[in-house]
Amino acid sequence: MSNAIEAAKTAPYKMRNQSEVGNPNKFQELLKEETVPIPAHLAFDDRKFSDDDIAIERYTSQAFLGQELKKMWTKVWQFVCREEQIPNAGDHVVYDLGDMSFIVIRGNDGKIRALYNSCLHRGRALRMNDGHAKELKCPYHGFTWSVNGAIASIPCEWDFKHIESKNNNLPEALVDSWNGFVFINPDLNAISLQEYMGVFPDHFKDYNFERSYVLAHVRREVTGNWKVVQEAFMESFHAHVTHPQLLTNIADADSQYDCYGDNISRSVSPSAVPSPHIYDVTQERILFDTLNESGRMAASDGEKFELPEGMTARQYMANINREMFGAALGRDLSHATMAELQDAILYSIFPNTQIWAGWGMNLVYRVIPNGKDVDSCIFDVMLMGRYKEGEERPKGAQVTNLKLEQSFGSAPELAALGPVFDQDIRNLDCMAKGLRASKKGTVSLASYQEIRIRHMHETLDKYLDAAE
């Protein structure tokens, strides 16, 4: 190890008064340093929302969750699984949300369906867990359906002549997919997934998500309302306190926030540049910490790379990613911006899915209510990779189900990201207690840095306020 790298590991920096920092235009200023054409979708989208407080009962009221489950979750497109998780006929996942339960299964015709997980005889759930089935046979009395959902056999059929004229195939929800991400919608009259996603597919069209697959998938229950967890990843405002190890390598309070239509929003947090909360940090320290702390770069060992003279950490990190991500993809990335090669560009699809844009190892977050418990939810983290054109999609990683007492850091497949998620969870596990203890009865959001949260609640209200 060189003396320069050794010095970079512990190079000091100074702290600013936190009340004086933050530059919403920082990302656009960084784009001026690009040496390649800048994609139009990286532009700033200026949208205003009300500064009104948000009632705490939206997070704590069992009745409010009941309205969400009844009026919103039954009407929206929601990400369920990846296509490679159910590659063969009969492979399925069970998707439970509130009272709803679906068997999302690949048929023997290759089509993916979302079948209501309820026997048409006496209502027993047909499947309790993910897995494989040659047929869907009710364990109670033996009514059987094909993996396509068509009725196959009825025990003592002579005693059910009265149902011969009825449709005895399993009811279905809508199913569609985007680049391997399988979505369902219980509302048969819903708009198409493409229309629902708005600008999202166009913004992602250059990132080869059609060749994506799951490198790691970790799931854990969280003690908190589903919106509390969703909101934790909709702003970078919290990073300087919750993730202090990232101060040297992510411009948290300098992030850009954009909202599109009802269902899509985005944050862009510049990487390989320091937080505005600090100053007098060396470029060598920025590079070392970006490699070791980010968890999303093509390389993760700061002791193997030394910053060339006259180059910034941001420039050098982009070069490393361009070469290594390009080799993994089998694609020339000379056209890629520094931003797309390293920045935290995070999109949300209402109500519960967030996907990182750009090149390399993209993260995916999904959060759903845990049954009907207003103070509990299920949080999924996926790490996506790419394969080369012409190759078969690799088998996706199996889900690692963590127990409530287990940390994300105990999942080795998350590497440096695990401890970062644990820092978030330490906040989220305390939210239910703090919200219920509030004398104020509302939460007050930042006008700009928490605009994506306001956007989500505005869309939610459109469903809740809709006529029955």
Blueprint of the fold:
Elements lengths: L2 H7 L4 E2 L10 H6 L22 E2 L1 H4 L1 H11 L5 E5 L8 E7 L2 E7 L5 E5 L14 E2 L3 E2 L6 E2 L5 E3 L18 E7 L2 E5 L7 H5 L2 H4 L8 E11 L3 H7 L6 H4 L13 E5 L3 E6 L8 E2 L3 H11 L19 H17 L8 H5 L1 E6 L3 E4 L5 E9 L2 E14 L12 E4 L14 H12 L2 H7 L4 E2 L7 H14 L4
Parallel strand pairs: 13-21
Antiparallel strand pairs: 1-16, 2-22, 3-12, 4-5, 4-7, 5-6, 6-11, 8-9, 9-10, 11-12, 13-20, 14-15, 15-17, 17-18, 18-19, 19-20
Helix pairs in contact: 1-9, 9-10
Q: What percent strand? A: 15-25%
- How are the strands of the biggest sheet laid out side by side? 14-15-17-18-19-20-13-21
Mean pLDDT: 95
Helix content: 10-25%
Distance between the termini: 67 Å
Q: Low-confidence segments, ≥5 residues, pLDDT <50?
A: none
What about the largest sheet? Answer: 8 strands, mixed
The structural class is: alpha+beta
Radius of gyration over C-alpha positions, nearest whole angstrom: 24 Å
Continuous helix count: 14
Tertiary shape: globular
Number of strands: 22
What do these coordinates show?
- The structure is a single chain.
- The protein has 468 residues and is an alpha+beta fold.
- 24% of the residues lie in helices and 24% in strands.
- The strands form five sheets. Strands 14-15-17-18-19-20-13-21 form an eight-stranded mixed beta sheet. The protein has a seven-stranded antiparallel beta sheet with strand order 3-12-11-6-5-4-7, with no helix packed on it. A three-stranded antiparallel beta sheet has the order 8-9-10, with no helix packed on it.
- A hairpin with a 2-residue loop joins strand 4 and strand 5.
- Helix 1 crosses helix 9.
- The longest helix has 17 residues, at 313-329.
